[in-house]
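Methods: example folding runs. The two proteins below were folded one after another, and each record is reproduced exactly as written to the output file, sequence line first and structure-token line second.
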Amino acid sequence: MYYAPLISMPDIYQTFHLGVNVFVLRGTQLLLGKRKGAIFGAGTWGLPGGHLETGEAMKEAAARELMEETGLSATQLEFSNIVNDRSGEQHYIQVGFIADGIIGEPAIKEPDRCEEWKWFEVNALPENLFPPHINQINNFLQKRLFADA
């Protein structure tokens, strides 16, 4: 029988952030936003998304963030992948959803955070992707469900 080694537990649990991101497709094009005025990642391209709020369902968070950032709504959101991102200064769990049945055209709804929304061919994405979204996008393109980065 296997017994896990005893690990000393700190008095305070470690914390991490949970991000929800949305893959919005139009044919073979992916919608990305150019980040602006952000503490981290200004000038890079990222997915619509944001933080899960306390008590919020993940699909509701994805729908809320999509609407808040782009003005788009989706008739359906399906799970795409999850990334345990330990690469930066903060630990993030990034959960991706694929939007289906998009209603509307992308608009800049948070001009202090996003310069523009642009459609990119999935096989010709910009080089300057928002670092926390790179593994999530790679998972999506390679149809992987999980990455531990």
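Second run, written to the same file directly after the first:
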Amino acid sequence: MNSNYMLIRAVRGPILLITLGVLMSLHRFQDINFSKTWPVLLILLGLMKLFERMALRAGETETAGPFTGAGPHI
């Protein structure tokens, strides 16, 4: 597996929890309702999945050698 892909997967949970904590703090200490800011979590999750796929695809193209296709190699 690609190290960038593994790094993104490893930090996905903590980043989402930190974002949730920030949104809850804004709800508690500011005049910003969580009911209006929760879509930020969905956007962040979507961005993290997009970065995962980009890193996975970049890792596939880096590891592909000259003989990765099907058929006999001469």
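Comment on the second run: The chain has one domain: 3-63.
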